[in-house]
Write a structure and sequence with these properties.
The chain is of the alpha+beta class and about 210 residues long. Helix content is about 35%, strand content about 35%. A hairpin with a 2-residue loop joins strand 3 and strand 4 (about 130-140). The termini are far apart.
């Protein structure tokens, strides 16, 4: 294999390591977890993010190598590589979304559901908390309804709030955006307010 081909392979690997899928999750994280390695050097997703570091190194090496090798035959190779990389980042989330709808088309359990872009604003009266939440839900398969409630991030473990589940009817094989208020009881203290951009959700399938 020629040196130029190795450089292009390095660029492709780098793009996969630093790209995000349709759920806005790092694809490099998925690769690391699949092969049994943590993508972070420390616990709780802290420290150095290895996929990004390795991806940047591979990209720089691949870009320089490809530009040097192909410049004599393709004088505009550098600009075309840049345009190609930008196009990849724009298109890749749509590719991963399409693949998931295809692979899980006949699924009817919890693995049929993914949620992204969850954010909530909280207001309370004494120990009664209302969470106005919006989120994007992907129903890849055959699920027709779910029960769902928000979950606070781990760094708010000291805020003990139990939110009631609500039942949502779903269209099959669809991407949907929702906005709902959730009622909850704050067991530890009172007066919890504010907004959180990355909220998790607990989902129960009710087919």
């Amino acid at each position: 294999m020629k040196k130029g081909h190795y450089s292009l392979i390095a660029i492709i690997l780098a793009l996969f390591l630093v790209s995000q899928n349709h759920l806005k999750h790092s694809f490099g994280d998925s690769i690391f977890k699949t092969i049994g390695f943590s993508p972070w050097t420390n616990e709780e997703n802290s420290g150095l993010h290895l996929p990004v570091i390795i991806g940047i190194i591979l990209f720089i090496m691949g870009f320089i190598g490809a530009a040097r090798y192909y410049r004599s035959r393709y004088p505009k190779i550098s600009s075309r590589l840049v345009i190609g990389c930008i196009a990849f980042f724009l298109v890749f989330p749509f590719i991963t979304e399409g693949v998931m709808f295809l692979v899980k088309y006949n699924s009817n359990g919890i693995d049929s559901i993914d949620i992204s872009s969850g954010k909530c604003s909280f207001k309370s009266e004494e120990n009664i908390v209302t969470a106005d939440c919006s989120f994007t839900l992907f129903n890849y398969g055959e699920v027709d309804k779910i029960a769902i409630n928000p979950i606070l991030p781990n760094y708010l473990d000291d805020v003990d709030i139990e939110f009631e589940r609500i039942v949502i009817p779903l269209d099959k094989h669809r991407r949907m955006t929702f906005g709902f208020p959730f009622k909850g009881m704050q067991r530890n203290g009172s007066g919890f307010t504010g907004s959180i951009q990355e909220v998790g959700f607990e989902v129960v399938v009710n087919n």
